[in-house]
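Try this one yourself first.
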C-alpha cells in the first residue's frame, strides 16, 4: 500500500473514533464495559479532541515527500500505537473493562498500526538519506 493511502486510512480511523468520542462518549464507554460518569465522559471527550488532531495531521501530510519531518510524524504515530496497545488489555485483565469484544479488536489494530507506522518511518528515513556520492561532494 502506498504511504499516502495508508495515511489517508489512518486519518479516517481516528477522525471517526473522535466523532464517536465527542458526540456519544457514554456509548463509547459502554462499548468497553465502563459505566459512564461525568468525569469519564470529560476524559473521553478530551481523547476525542486528541484523536481529531492526529487524524487531521495524517490527512494533511498524506501526500508529502519523505523528509525528516515525515519520519517524525510516522514515528510519533507509531509511539501512539505502541503506547495505547497494552492499556486496554491490562485494564481488562485487571477487571477494569468488562467487554472483551471492545478490547480485542482495538488491541489488534494498535499492534498492526504500530508495525505499519514503524515500517513506513523506516522506508521514509531510507529514501530521505542522501546517496553516498552526494554525502562526499564538497559544499
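Now uncover the answer:
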Amino acid at each position: 500500500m502506498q504511504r499516502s493511502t495508508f495515511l489517508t486510512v489512518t486519518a479516517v480511523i481516528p477522525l471517526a473514533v473522535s466523532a464517536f468520542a465527542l458526540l456519544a462518549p457514554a456509548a463509547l464507554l459502554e462499548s468497553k464495559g465502563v459505566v459512564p460518569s461525568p468525569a469519564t465522559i470529560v476524559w473521553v471527550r478530551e481523547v476525542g479532541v486528541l484523536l481529531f488532531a492526529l487524524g487531521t495531521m495524517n490527512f494533511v501530510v498524506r501526500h508529502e515527500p519523505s523528509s525528516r519531518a515525515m519520519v517524525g510524524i510516522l514515528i510519533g504515530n507509531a509511539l501512539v500505537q505502541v503506547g495505547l496497545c497494552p492499556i486496554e488489555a491490562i485494564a481488562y485483565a485487571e477487571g477494569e473493562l468488562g467487554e472483551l469484544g471492545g478490547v480485542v479488536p482495538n488491541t489488534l489494530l494498535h499492534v498492526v498500526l504500530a508495525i505499519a507506522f514503524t515500517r513506513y518511518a523506516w522506508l521514509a528515513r531510507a529514501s530521505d538519506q542522501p546517496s553516498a556520492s552526494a554525502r562526499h561532494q564538497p559544499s
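Discussion: The helical segments are 3-23, 25-31, 38-61, 68-93, 100-128, 132-135. The chain has a mean pLDDT of 91.
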